[in-house]
Q: What sequence folds into this?
């Protein structure tokens, strides 16, 4: 099985790759962030994407969405430190086959990879219950603008990055601030991150 492992922490990525190589008949290709992962997904065929959520560039959830939109969808397992309700809900909506926390035992990961490759869905029951929580009020455009704002980018930089007008960026950020009852864009990003909506 050919697996693309997307994880921005080098030590974690190396340990996971070594574990997978030892534990199963897996060929593991590594990506250090979301953008490199997308580039590899476009160049090569993979059976499964094993990805973190929070990474530079594209997030694991954005990668999962991309995988779902392909003619032959690639199976996806999210492996993260954060069991936030918003993340889990968005992962389920993106058609993710598995959602595991990084503190799960290694045999749980191997079992999940094998189960997801057979078309099963593996999500910790407690995490699945959490996903029923609050509704995410942000749309994708507001989320992208807010994510870039949380990285300290100016409206002009966000506009250039998203290929939209600066006024449109301000509108997206204003909408996000209002929806989250936040005092400013930094506060809005903090709230959205805590809820797993960013």
A:
């Amino acid at each position: 099985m050919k697996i693309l492992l997307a994880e921005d922490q080098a030590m974690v990525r190396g340990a996971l790759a070594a574990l997978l190589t030892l534990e199963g008949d897996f060929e593991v290709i590594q990506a250090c962030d979301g953008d490199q992962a997308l580039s590899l997904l476009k160049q090569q065929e993979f059976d499964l994407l094993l990805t973190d959520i929070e990474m530079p560039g594209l997030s694991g959830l954005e990668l999962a969405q991309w995988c779902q939109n392909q003619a032959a969808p690639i199976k996806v397992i999210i492996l993260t430190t954060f069991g936030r309700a918003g993340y889990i809900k968005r992962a389920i909506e993106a058609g993710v086959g598995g959602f595991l926390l990084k503190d799960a035992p290694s045999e749980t990961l191997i079992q999940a990879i094998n189960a997801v490759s057979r078309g099963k869905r593996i999500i910790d029951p407690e995490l699945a219950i959490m996903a029923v929580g609050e509704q995410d009020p942000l749309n994708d455009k507001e989320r992208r603008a807010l994510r870039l704002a949380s990285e300290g980018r100016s409206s002009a930089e966000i506009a250039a990055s998203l290929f939209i007008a600066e006024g449109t960026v301000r509108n997206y950020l204003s909408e996000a601030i209002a929806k989250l009852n936040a005092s400013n864009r930094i506060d809005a990003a903090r709230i959205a991150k805590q809820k797993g909506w960013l």
The first strand starts at residue 2 and ends at 6. DSSP finds ten helices and six strands in the chain. The mean pLDDT is 90. The chain has two domains: 2-130, 140-195.
